[in-house]
Automatic annotation (TrEMBL):
Homodimer. InterPro entries: ALAT1/2-like (IPR045088), Aminotransferase_I/II_large (IPR004839), PyrdxlP-dep_Trfase (IPR015424), PyrdxlP-dep_Trfase_major (IPR015421), PyrdxlP-dep_Trfase_small (IPR015422). Belongs to the class-I pyridoxal-phosphate-dependent aminotransferase family. Alanine aminotransferase subfamily. GO terms for biological process: L-alanine catabolic process; photorespiration; response to hypoxia. PANTHER family: ALANINE AMINOTRANSFERASE (PTHR11751), GLUTAMATE--GLYOXYLATE AMINOTRANSFERASE 1 (PTHR11751:SF472). GO terms for cellular component: peroxisome. It is found in: Peroxisome. Its main location: other. Pfam families: Aminotran_1_2. This is Aminotransferase class I/classII large domain-containing protein. It comes from Eutrema salsugineum (Saltwater cress).
Amino acid sequence: MALDYDALNENVKKCQYAVRGELYLRASELQKEGKKIIFTNVGNPHALGQKPLTFPRQVVALCQAPFLLDDPNVGMLFPADAIARAKHYLSLTSGGLGAYSDSRGIPGVRKEVAEFIERRDGYPSDPELIFLTDGASKGVMQILNCVIRGEGDGILVPVPQYPLYSATISLLGGSLVPYYLDESENWGLDVNNLRQSVAQARSQGISVRAMVIINPGNPTGQCLSEANLREILRFCYNEKLVLLGDEVYQQNIYQDERPFISAKKVLMDMGLPLSKEVQLVSFHTVSKGYWGECGQRGGYFEMTNIPPRVVEEIYKVASIALSPNVSAQIFMGLMVSPPKPGDISYDQFSRESKGILESLRRRAKIMTDGFNSCKNVVCNFTEGAMYSFPQIRLPPGALQAAKQAGKVPDVFYCLKLLEATGISTVPGSGFGQKEGVFHLRTTILPAEEEMPEIMDSFKKFNDEFMTQYDNNFGYSRM
Ligand code: DCS
């Protein structure tokens, strides 16, 4: 039978997604047995106690229950700007939240997204080239689906990377072409490495068609500089690559030297001929930033320099799924047009959003400093995104013990950490890393007041682990 394991599509079996892999499954088991688990494996802020922003929930609540708008007491429960905004979004739908929308998303919301991009970048954006999606993930999958024709097609992906990319490329039967980020240069991207990766792939008969950047980086947390983005865009121009700009963490910036700058803005700043020729698809989401509305599944992508006939084809494919979530589209509309100064809800909205971002900035530092105080652990500062990605230098005794247990060394370490402390992380091997180098990824999302205790418990476990396995013969290398 087609759904017997042996008969399954091999691409399904090959595809790996570590963020919900062995560690997560073991953590779920331990939780069922009554152990307290701190789930730092997924960037899922509300699951770790982050409160939703009030204004967008008020608006969407009214859209979900439009009869409340007819209630004479509605003004006692909801501020006037939330009521007005709910009416605005309902007027953009064709039958409220229970009706499918256009497969590209509600035109009025796509217009709001275009206006946001214009304000952000200072260049025009066309709503017809913006598609709303169920989270950024679906958008990435749609675009990779259009690009990958078979295993001869290669996609340049950073290593370490967020495994949405490796998993989707496997699923679609394409080839992942890795380019390595340099840990000793704060996870910087060296264009010479890119050239080598492309040359090597081509020598194996792979046609490299697209390049992925994640800015700010997951799991690595680095923010790309404008100069680096220029080099990348020029590289894509020379090599005729589509650039897929994953910019879902654009609000999550924790340093002031390198504010977020979009690939679209840098491309437009570069002028002709690049600005009219480099093909770029940029992704965004409501799951990250100070919104953290992961469960709503809202996202968009914007296409630049993609020919109209191709946009039509992407529209056709999107139509097969009928419509992105309509309530999530409204979250996206709200994210790109939040309350403005002078609006009734402005003060509360800005207090809430600033509070979350400032706390994330402090947590990024507490985590990095905490890791750097541990034996045999080194960690670059989390400049952006939601993760810390410390390198764990494992002593030979630990490598041997892992081998005996039949585990990859970082999986072994993370399992021990989970059993001892309840901290559920993702082993670095799930994101790809250089041979013989080990990491783990945690989110920086646990509540700030719990952070010192979590880091103390990590340090206690780690330092004991290192002492236990330390036989003084050299370590896994840097
Ligand atoms: N791109 C990157 C770089 C991500 O980290 C994520 C989610 C996505 C896209 C997709 O998000 P949405 O589909 O929700 O918009 N990050 C996962 C992670 O590493 N932990 O949590 C989810």
